[in-house]
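Hello forum,

I keep getting stuck at the same step: I have a sequence, I want structure tokens, and every attempt I make locally crashes halfway through. Rather than fight my setup again tonight, could one of you with a working pipeline run this one for me? It's a single chain of 286 residues.
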Amino acid sequence: MNIALYGGSFDPPHRGHVHVALEALKRLDIDKLILVPAYKNPFKSSVCAEGKQRLHWLKHLFDPYPKIEISSFELDLGRSVYTIETVLHYAQMAKKLYVIIGADNLSSLPHWKESQRLQDIATLVVASRDGIAIPDTMLRLNVDEPVSSTHFRTTFTPLNLSHPIEQEIILYYKRKLMNPRIEKIHSVLDINKAEDIQVFELTGSDYFADYVVLASSLGERHTLALLDHLRKGLKPEEQFLYVDESGDWVAIDLGDILIHILTPQYRLKYDLESFLADVSARKNKH
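Reply #2:
Ran it on my machine without issues. Output:
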């Protein structure tokens, strides 16, 4: 049996990964393509999505393709696994073995564990990326896609999967990555004596922000003081896109998060809680 291995974090999977897999099926003489999500990349400090979650997404994405198998081999070991270990595991069941890597990995390839042994056992196939030069001696997959898992985790740009599971993936990362930011905002407000701090999660709704934070000040001077504390406490990590400020009401637009600081009188008068609770309720019905 001829097998191709395609490993990676897939954190999250995106159109580029799908394109690589489908191009491999077309270009390589293989009976099976095995995608192997990593427990943790040996060259990276951590992953964002849990292994079982990434495995679930990959199985859904590639279910229509009988020649593609999703392997839990590295996840089941519960540790960082070097590519040579995975190659040795599958080499015993393959007549010919290919290993697919991204062109961005070429520079680090000499530092991989037992790199030469890996290349003696398996034929490397390089997927093009970002115009990186690929040696003529290596098999090449022309699959440049302007999508990056790392970029997605900071911008939530589309994954271009053309699959219903894309929305599930986006919501997962928004919740996972947003929470530390919300906690930081809450902490800055709480330490500086803001009162009645409430957080509304609106991801998946038709509202233009994913989270809204409401807080009450002790008065007009305190409202503006809280704004200053947030500017000092959240920068440079957060970008203040727009600030509408007065002593009674400060509104801060962070893009996907809105912060409202109001005096108790203004908060009672405008009752933002009821409006946001209604938006959240409508979201949960869908």
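The chain has two domains: 2-163, 179-285. If your local run keeps crashing, start a new thread with the error log.
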